[in-house]
Amino acid sequence: MRRYQVYLDPHSVSILDEFEKYANISRSKLIREAIDRLAQNLSRVFVEKNEAPRETITLDSLVGFINVADKKQTNYASRNDSAYLTD
User: Fold this and answer.
1) Cα dist. 44→47, 53, 54, 55 in Å?
2) How far apart are the C-alpha atoms of 46 and 51, rounded to whole Å?
3) 16 by DSSP, 3-state: which?
4) Containing H/E element for 44?
5) Max intra-chain CA distance, the chain
6) Sign of the Cα pseudo-torsion (61, 67, 71, 72, in order)
7) DSSP 56
């Protein structure tokens, strides 16, 4: 096994912690089992499609999609941050 660092939603962590007390299974083990199950399901998808996983990320195809002709500095993402920061 290798160690990785991930960022988790605090609400999700609190649910995992409550389940840890209930089932006496560590949060780390719950996360590992969830990731393992997800990886197994994803591998089935690739087998069904007879394709290997792509080397590039799907969103990479959007790079350069917005063409700004006037060379003005823009940050399109910052305009939409408020949608992600509201509860």
Assistant:
1) 5, 11, 15, 18
2) 5
3) helix
4) helix 27-49
5) 60
6) negative
7) S
Cα separation of 14 and 4, whole Å? Answer: 20
Do the beta carbons of residue 49 and residue 42 sit within 8 Å? Answer: no
Who's near 52: CB < 8 A, 6+ residues apart? 46
Q: Name the pTM for this structure.
A: 0.51
Give the distance, in angstroms, between the CA of residue 38 and the centroid of all CA atoms in the same chain: 12
Residue by residue, pLDDT tens for the chain (87 residues) are: 888 888 999 999 999 999 999 899 999 999 999 999 998 888 887 777 766 666 666 666 666 655 666 666 565 555 555 555 555
Question: Residue ranges of the domains in the chain?
Answer: 10-85
**Under a CB-based contact definition with an 8 Å cutoff, are residues 66 and 76 in contact?**
yes
Per-residue confidence (pLDDT) for residue 18, from 0 to 100: 93
- Rounded to whole angstroms, how far apart are CA atoms 20 and 5? 20
